Amino acid sequence: MGIIESWMKRPRNSEEHLAELFAPGAETRLLERAQQLDERGDHLDATQLLRAGTVRFYPWNEGEAALDRYERSRARAALASLQDAVDSRYSAADAANLSAALNRLGDSSGATSWAHAAIEEDPCNPEGYLAIARGFLRRFRREDDSVAGLHALRYLSKACQLDPGHGECLRALAMLLLLLAAPVAASKVLRPITRVSPSDPIVLALDALTKILPPENTTNVQELFLRWETGSAPTNDETTRQMIPAPGEFDVWEIDATRSLVACSDGADQGQQMTESLSVLTGSLYQATPRMGLGEFSRFTARGPGGVLIGLAESGSMIVSHCNRRSLESSLGRWLESDRGRETIR
Amino acid sequence: MNRLLEKLNEIPGVLGSMVMTDDGIPVASRLSEEIDEECVAAFSSTARLAVNRTAMHCSGEEPEEVILEAEGGNLLLINLDGATLAVMTHAGLELNTGLLEIRSLARRLSGILEIRIS
Question: Does residue A233 form part of some domain?
Fold first, then answer.
């Protein structure tokens, strides 16, 4: 390797020092560094460093409290000029900035209405979605509120879709993925930032976490949320999987309370993607209906050009069945409601 | 759009309705005050995505409508080409009769969205 190449491969001093702040047990040093940055007027750098720190050392109450102080003082200092900006020239970005500041100062209804105003003013500008997402992301991190995490994901996905290279959107999405213990997905999201700014605090937090967190074995973000909530992943043991006798035109699967595929009919797809889809389907539906105020989930029916798909709840588990012909929906429903002959076999 | 949602809410047994983007961002809603709009949008979108993915593995086609039935009520999710209509109804509602009317209003909503996009 040439001298220039080896020199280029060496981390710069500042990078080295910054990376040390994300090493195990470096919380206090990171806090001190953020304080120094803040004192010399680098408020944004201080905030970004602390944000990355709260992800790296999660759960880290001292860091959260410091971040809260910084963010609030920045919001307080900027509030008057943000209000002036909204009054004088009114743009989606101005409304979104005001929303973010109000959110930090605890005025959540003001924050929500300004964020929605930003989206209404320019639905293709990511700032309004980002402002809403940040509030939810904070709640997810501080209160372990999975619903807030899901909200954050929706708004961040939208913001990233509108502007795929938006640094702050990418950082926030990577933070969410790291909190969900998904370093591989976070690393993909951060790739554009890593390329241009390898010493960005969130990149360093990711590097540090990659050494601790095992790589996730799913690319399905709904599965990540379910794992985060339940603390477990489906086992899907093929050797113990049983057979469900079913008429030839129906494909049938049974998923148990651990979201694992435990039985299926002859010829039904048992591939990894299908199995994961069924696990996510079961977990998502059992979660969704109570949280929407509809009570315990009992059944779903999906109709389309591809036929009919019916799922039936059974004490924590679910029976899912598909038929290509929509005209057979009633027969499929009746067959599912009957004992299906499963119990005599198993 | 709001007028059509109000019409939907007049169908017996319908508790509220909303239009949201496919990624679960509310566009217009007529839900009662005690129902959390963000929560319905988030979980409707999660449920729809999970059902769609499974249906795609089964047949390679996404469903046009999904009906979730639960102890305390039902949720209908109807595809509006790029958006989703979510309709909450009472539990045990006779879905066959109300569904025809809901589908007809969904088609009109779909037309409005097409006009807006173009």
Answer: no
CA distance B82 to chain A (A): 13
Asked whether the CA dihedral A41, A45, A49, A51 is positive or negative, the reply is positive
- Interface probe for B, chosen from A300, A323, A326 (most Cβ of B below 10 Å), is A300
Last residue within a domain, chosen from A179, A197, A228: A228
Q: A251: which chain B residues are within 8 Å (Cβ-Cβ)?
A: 58
Residues of chain B found within 8 Å of residue A131, distances taken between Cβ atoms:
none
Q: Which of B29, B57, B81, B100 is most worth mutating to test chain A (most A CB atoms within 10 A of its CB)?
A: B57
Q: A265 and A202 in one domain?
A: no
Q: How many residues does chain A have?
A: 346
Token pair 């009317």 in the structure block, residue: B101
Annotation: CATH topology of B2-117: Beta-Lactamase (3.30.450)
Residue B89: in which H helix or E strand, if any?
Answer: strand B83-89
Instruction: Name which of A337, A339, A298, A330 is nearest A315 in CA terms.
Output: A298
Kindly state the tokens that stand for A259. 């979201």
Count how many Cα atoms sit within 13 Å of the Cα of residue A39 in the half-sphere of its side chain: 6
| DSSP state for residue A211 in the 8-state scheme | T
Q: What is the pTM of this model?
A: 0.85
Pairwise CA distance, residues A26 & A29, whole Å: 5
Q: Which residues of B touch A158 (CB under 8 A)?
A: 21, 23, 25
- Contact residues on chain B for A269, CB-CB shorter than 8 A: 57-58
Residue A317 Cα distances to A204, A259, A300, B25, angstroms:
42, 7, 14, 30
Give the residue numbers in B contacting A (CB under 8 Å), as ranges: 21, 23-25, 34-36, 38-47, 49-51, 53-75, 88, 91
Q: Render each residue's pLDDT in chain B as its tens digit; 118 residues.
A: 889 999 999 998 899 999 998 888 888 999 988 889 989 999 999 999 999 999 999 999 999 999 999 999 999 999 998 899 999 999 876 666 788 889 999 999 888 876 554 4
* Beta carbons of B63 and A304 less than 8 Å apart: yes
- The CATH number of residue A29's host domain is 1.25.40.10
d(CA B69, CA A148): 24
Sheet holding B14-21, edge to edge: A242-244, A261-265, A251-255, A317-323, A307-314, A297-304, B65-70, B73-79, B83-89, B14-21, B26-30
Provide the 10 A C-beta neighbour count for residue A226. 25
Assess whether A216 and A253 both reside in one domain. Answer: no
Tell whether A51 is within 8 A of chain B (Cβ): no
Chain A from 75 to 104: CB within 8 A of any B CB:
none
Task: Please name the member of B35, B42, B74 whose beta carbon is closest to the beta carbon of A151.
Answer: B42
The number of residues making up chain B comes to: 118
